[in-house]
């Protein structure tokens, strides 16, 4: 590797790629106004800083009790303008919903209305401190309380725990409440049943809560096999059921509504178990179906998916959990209550007489305030009719894609009827050794963030496309044109697709090596 030149470029990085664009290689590695950007360690210098602090007398007495650093920290610095450019250039290599279509199935990457952002930035919400005296943050507590009420109303459930900070965290909250409920009645059970198509967080949650995870098989139509589930509940005979709970995603990750959910819930309850519903796909049924009517005991709601807050890359989330009467007494602390005089207060200590033996806390404080204000703003600006339309339009858009692709792309469950808010395809018919990965990379060259790939695991080379309700017909038509073109290449065994992407800031990366053997230290 040659040393970076003064502006940081390693010319060989880009030469080949410029060649692929058909033009001559550039000296800088830049492509017109798309600028390359090396790592901070390549362009920064240890003796440079963007801040001008007074020189400290290292020999002066301090209060660090001998723990002061006595060697250089080894971090490089940049000037302020260099810093601004570094991060701005990197941001231009990023992709987000504000740039274009983002059909990442299961993730619900919808437009984030700017009104949400405006409200979340109001100082009374943005600047509150979690330890501020409660009398001074009544408005913030009212937001938590009102949002919780709407979540209960939309789901038809009697109680809600607001503090979990993401979907997976909400799953843990629900499963811990289920564990507490079983333990309270002295009924130790060991097993949680999870369908094969479930999101990886479901079995991980159950295992984390010290349950043994067993698969529930699926029918050829892509739904839970009810007969197999009932047979499993009966193993061991009457009164000997070891199943603590089932965790079922509805609509499921194959993009289908679990029509037999009520029957499943009744069977699980009859066997003394509880029903956890993964509510990540609530976007497809919000305002249309109330999970409480289906026999759900606990369900997390990814506010950042259904109720639209910016998310991704582990970014801010919020996963409130609605609970049935059976589980409500075990909900985590703290929770908001309203006094007779209308003032709000937080219950921070366990009040057995009021709500029973809470299983404990999920977080230090009350949850993600910024997500609460965004989600409540989203609900109030949509209204009941608007939320219902969210579900209807999301489902319509997904079905439009399903029916526009199924003549050329294997759609394993298309015969089961309409899908919900995501369309699922497989790579069965590709030739020449081409696979789903090649189609995903080809879509990047066409300017599209790929759909979710290789999930759910029940479909070979799965492609899970979720357009969401916020895309226009024109945008979806354009996507279908590009998607069809790339799929046609995969069907024809086009060798060139194996090298895609050609035009991305980086060519095809070894993603497996990057995940399994990450290089976390810069070695020059
Ligand atoms: C996103 C998702 C989760 C996990 O939610 P996070 O908020 O990412 O923790 C769980 N199940 C399904 C089906 C999901 O799509």
Radius of gyration, taken over Cα atoms and rounded to an integer in Å: 26 Å
- At CATH level 3, the topology of the largest domain is Aspartate Aminotransferase, domain 2
What is the 3D shape?
globular
Q: Please outline the major beta sheet.
A: 7 strands, mixed
Poorly predicted runs of 5 or more residues: 1-19
Which series of helices and strands comes N to C? Answer: HHHHHHEHEHEHEHEEHEEEHHEHEEHH
What is the straight-line distance between the termini?
9 Å
Q: Which small-molecule ligands are present, each listed once?
A: pyridoxal-5'-phosphate
How many domains, in number, for the residues? 3
Beta-strand content bin: 5-15%
CATH superfamily of the largest domain: Type I PLP-dependent aspartate aminotransferase-like (Major domain)
Mean pLDDT: 92
Q: What is the gist of this entry?
A:
This protein has 524 residues and is of the alpha/beta class. The chain is 34% helix and 9% strand.
Protein model, in words:
By secondary structure, the chain is α/β, with parallel strands linked by helices. It folds into three domains: 1-61 and 70-93, no CATH class; 155-376, Aspartate Aminotransferase, domain 2, CATH 3.40.640.10; 385-515, Aspartate Aminotransferase, domain 1, CATH 3.90.1150.10. 34% of the residues lie in helices and 9% in strands. The protein contains 16 helices and twelve strands. The protein has helices at 12-20, 40-43, 80-92, 114-120, 123-126, 138-155, 167-184, 201-208, 226-234, 261-270, 303-306, 352-355, 369-405, 436-445, 473-491, 511-516; strands at residues 159-161, 191-195, 212-216, 243-249, 274-278, 298-300, 321-323, 335-338, 344-347, 423-425, 452-453, 463-465. The protein has a seven-stranded mixed sheet, with helices on both faces. Strand 2, helix 8 and strand 3 (212-216) form a beta-alpha-beta unit. Helix 13 crosses helix 15 (473-491). The termini are close together. Mean pLDDT is 92; it is low at 1-19. The structure holds pyridoxal-5'-phosphate.
């Amino acid at each position: 590797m040659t040393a970076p030149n003064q502006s940081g470029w390693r010319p060989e990085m880009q030469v080949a790629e410029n060649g692929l664009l058909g033009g001559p290689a550039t000296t800088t590695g830049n492509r017109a106004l798309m600028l390359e950007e090396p790592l901070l360690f390549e362009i920064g210098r240890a003796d440079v800083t963007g801040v001008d602090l007074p020189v400290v007398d290292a020999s002066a007495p301090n209060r660090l009790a001998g723990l002061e650093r006595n060697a250089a920290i080894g971090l490089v610095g940049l000037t302020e303008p260099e810093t601004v450019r570094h991060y701005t250039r990197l941001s231009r290599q990023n992709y987000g919903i504000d740039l274009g279509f983002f059909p990442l199935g299961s993730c619900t990457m919808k437009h984030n209305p700017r009104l949400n952002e405006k409200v979340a930035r109001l100082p009374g919400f943005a600047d509150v401190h979690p330890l501020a005296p409660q009398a001074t943050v009544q408005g913030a507590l009212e937001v938590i309380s009102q949002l919780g009420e709407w979540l209960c109303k939309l789901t038809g459930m009697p109680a809600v725990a607001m503090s979990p900070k993401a979907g997976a965290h909400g799953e843990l909250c629900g499963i811990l409440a289920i564990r507490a409920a079983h333990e309270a009645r002295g009924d130790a059970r060991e097993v949680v049943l999870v369908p094969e198509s479930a999101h990886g967080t479901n079995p991980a949650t159950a295992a984390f809560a010290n349950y043994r995870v067993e698969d529930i098989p699926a029918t050829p139509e892509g739904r839970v096999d009810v007969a197999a589930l009932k047979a499993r509940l009966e193993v061991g005979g009457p009164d000997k059921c070891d199943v603590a709970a089932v965790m079922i995603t509805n609509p499921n990750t194959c993009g289908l509504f679990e029509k037999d959910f009520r029957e499943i819930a009744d069977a699980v309850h009859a066997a003394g178990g509880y029903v956890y519903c993964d509510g990540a796909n609530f976007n497809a049924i919000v305002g249309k179906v109330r999970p409480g009517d289906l026999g759900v005991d606990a369900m997390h709601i990814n506010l950042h998916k259904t109720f639209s807050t910016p998310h991704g890359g582990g970014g801010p989330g919020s996963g409130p959990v609605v609970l049935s009467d059976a589980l409500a007494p075990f909900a985590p602390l703290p929770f908001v209550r309203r006094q007779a005089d209308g003032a709000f207060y937080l219950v921070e200590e366990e009040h057995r007489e009021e709500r029973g033996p809470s299983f404990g806390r999920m977080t230090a404080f009350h949850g993600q305030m910024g997500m609460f204000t965004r989600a409540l703003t989203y609900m109030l600006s949509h209204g009941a009719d608007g939320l219902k339309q969210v579900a209807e339009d999301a489902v319509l858009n997904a079905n439009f894609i399903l029916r526009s692709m199924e003549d050329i792309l294997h759609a394993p469950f298309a015969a089961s009827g309409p899908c919900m808010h995501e369309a699922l395809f497989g790579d069965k018919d590709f030739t020449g050794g081409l696979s789903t990965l090649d189609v995903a990379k080809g879509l990047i060259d066409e300017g599209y963030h790929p759909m979710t790939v290789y999930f759910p695991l029940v479909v070979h080379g799965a492609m899970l496309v979720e357009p969401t309700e916020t895309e226009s017909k024109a945008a979806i038509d354009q996507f279908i044109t590009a998607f069809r073109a790339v799929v046609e290449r995969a069907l024809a065994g086009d060798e060139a697709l194996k090298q895609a992407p050609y035009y991305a800031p980086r060519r095809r990366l070894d993603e497996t090596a990057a995940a399994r053997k990450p290089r976390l230290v810069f070695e020059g």
